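Below is a filled-in request sheet from our internal design queue. Each sheet records the structural input a requester submitted and the sequence that came back. We keep these sheets so that new team members can see what a complete request looks like end to end.

REQUESTER: design group, bay 2
PRIORITY: normal
MODE: inverse folding
CHAIN LENGTH: 213
BACKBONE (tokenized):
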């Protein structure tokens, strides 16, 4: 069994110490932080599958989330190297209304900041009007919505609609991501881009401002 497979399994089984130890040793061995994140995402998906099958319950999901946050604290400085130059653009990012999952959103934010974006983090459970307010105030090139719950599809369309009603839709690109997002959801809600990973989102944002990721 490879050590990266073990990291995914340690996360899926909520083995905090083992997971953190493996993250540190992979960092020490020079494994890129983005590769470690990808492995951790697989672990979180496995945990989600265990939950869906009734093999574990909410406390495990919460614990898994807490471990992942600790992992991100270790990886953060490697994902977002200190930005010294001027800002290359602005982004407004949030998890949609009624959804409180924030781990993927935070990874995207770290990556955007790492390449030089100024990011306004709206947090979780963000109502459409808060997105509108932030776009009006900060004039970003891109808005990013994270969605993990299929029950929150309506929050995406309501946010796009609210931006349109406020006359702001044409001045900003809207990207979508998170486990419940898809090309189909992008099409049905009138968003501009669906990113399967935070790296895809970061690349899209860079492309919008003419920067290379
Ligand atoms: C941890 C977890 C929780 C934690 C969250 C902790 C936290 N601080 O975020 C807690 C315990 C709070 C939780 C609660 C619930 N959860 Co939950 N949770 C998970 C779990 C296991 C992992 C999520 C995660 O962090 N993954 C790791 C991150 C890194 O992945 P990610 O968010 O997808 O992000 C990556 C990409 O998608 C992308 N990305 C993310 N956002 C964006 C945005 C843009 C713009 C772009 C471009 C890219 C991008 O970048 C990231 C890195 O590449 C998932 C399983 C899964 N498969 O996702 C279930 C899951 C999402 N939860 C689920 C459910 C049902 C719930 C609850 C309803 C349970 C309940 N009965 O109460 C509640 C809902 C609470 C709410 N109102 O939001 C279901 C959703 C099912 C569905 N079809 O909707 C899942 C899929 C589990 C399952 N298989 O059943 N959960």
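RETURNED SEQUENCE:
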């Amino acid at each position: 069994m490879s050590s990266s497979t073990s990291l995914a399994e340690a996360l899926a089984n909520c083995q905090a110490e083992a997971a953190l130890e493996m993250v540190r040793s992979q960092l020490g061995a020079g494994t890129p932080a983005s590769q470690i994140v990808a492995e951790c995402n697989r672990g979180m998906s496995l945990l989600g599958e265990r939950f869906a099958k009734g093999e574990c319950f909410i406390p495990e999901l919460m614990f898994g989330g807490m471990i992942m946050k600790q992992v991100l604290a270790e990886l953060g400085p490697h994902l977002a190297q200190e930005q010294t130059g001027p800002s290359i653009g602005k982004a407004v990012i949030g998890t949609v209304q009624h959804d409180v999952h924030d781990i993927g959103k935070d990874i995207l934010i770290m990556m955007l900041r790492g390449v030089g974006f100024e990011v306004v983090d709206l947090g979780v459970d963000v109502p459409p009007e808060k997105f509108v307010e932030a776009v009006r105030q900060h004039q970003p090139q891109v808005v990013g919505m994270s969605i993990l719950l299929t029950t929150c599809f309506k929050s995406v369309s309501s946010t796009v609609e609210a931006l349109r009603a406020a006359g702001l839709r044409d001045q900003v690109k809207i990207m979508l991501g998170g486990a419940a997002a898809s090309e189909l959801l992008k099409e049905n809600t009138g968003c501009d881009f669906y990113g399967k990973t935070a790296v895809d989102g970061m690349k899209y944002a860079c492309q919008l401002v003419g920067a290379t990721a």
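SHEET NOTES:
- The chain has a mean pLDDT of 92.
- Residues 58-79 form the longest helix (22 residues).
FILED BY: M.R.
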